[in-house]
Amino acid sequence: MPAPAIRHLDRIGAIARKGMRQWARDRQALVGPMLIPLVLMFLCGILFGFGGDEWNIGLVNEGGGAHAAAFETQVRELRGNISPYFRVVTTDADQARRLVDEGRLHLVVTIPEDFDERIDAGEIPVLYTRVYNINTDMMKNARLRLTRAVQDYAAANAPGQAPVTVTQTTTRVDDVPRRTFIAHSAVILAIMVGSALNAAIMVAREWERRTVKEIRLAPRPLTDLTTGMLLAAIAAGAINTLVTLMVAVGVFGVRIPVGRLPVLVAIAALVSIACAGVGIAVGAWLRDYRTIQPLLMITFAGSFFAAGGFSSVATLPRAVQAFDRFWPPAYVFESMQAQAWMTQPPSPGPILLGGAIAALVGVGAGVWALRRRL
Questions:
Q1: Which residues of the chain, if any, have pLDDT below 70?
Q2: DSSP per-residue string spanning 146-187
Q3: Sheet holding 55-61, edge to edge
Q4: How does pLDDT run across 24-34, given as a tens digit for each residue?
Q5: Alpha carbon of 281 to those of 35, 176, 209, 245, 265: distances in Å?
């Protein structure tokens, strides 16, 4: 290998090793980039993903016939792929009314005495419900699940009279549990925040520790300096991501088919380079860890919720979807989730091309910022 090339590699390696040593000794830098993904994983995963998906209800059956018993059974046994839809807390009418008024139940379903009589007479039976309609989203789900129970009961017990019969085709054999979806999103977040925040901290520390003068005086091309910092930030970010991934696999049940890993790793690598470049730019421009850390953490944590980490972009409000058309993390979340979960994922070509362009832009921004600040 020619001597100039060896000198370039030596300089790049020295800068990368220096960055990694400083990172390993810096507790804030070591823990900070892992904090947001892990906190969001545990907070959102446990609150919204563990313990099933049952909704607390009261079920009062005042009818004594076979039809009323069959409908009660339908409500009790209605379930998704993960857990039952309802958890019957009480069958006592007075207690159910009191609990729903206190907000302890989502709704109370009452099957009246004449339920069987109306059905046998060819009339339409009536169900009575009392709801705690304080939270619109909660009530929407409760009503939809009750509607599902009515439809399934009609299809099973009066198929000729059911107004609508639903035939369902799914994109997967089983539903992806919410905790698994959230944990996988947290891993994606760790890729982005790990590279960006580590790069920003490494660069900012040069000014905070007053070592930037040595860098300015050292005989080094800007390309070597940027490359060394990028490698150190990407390596540190990879460690942060690996820790997050192990938690996601061990605690939250993330399982990705082996055949999907090469594409996901390629996307992750390009995203990591892009974020590291942006991190270098942010660190060189702000030069203050106390400003950089909350800025990047809040930005990426907000992206987790607003760009498809907690729930897919298609389910978000229209205004947020319009914003996500211009917000790069939204494409990262959507693409990596599709590659991990869909039975037939889309072609990875567009996201790989977009990632390559983002990597060039991110590195370019880092080089430009360093040139201006050094």
A1: 1-8, 49-52, 159-166, 213, 215-220
A2: HHHHHHHHHHHH-TTT-S-------SSSSPPPHHHHHHHHHH
A3: 86-90, 55-61, 107-111, 128-131
A4: 887 777 787 88
A5: 22, 38, 18, 27, 24
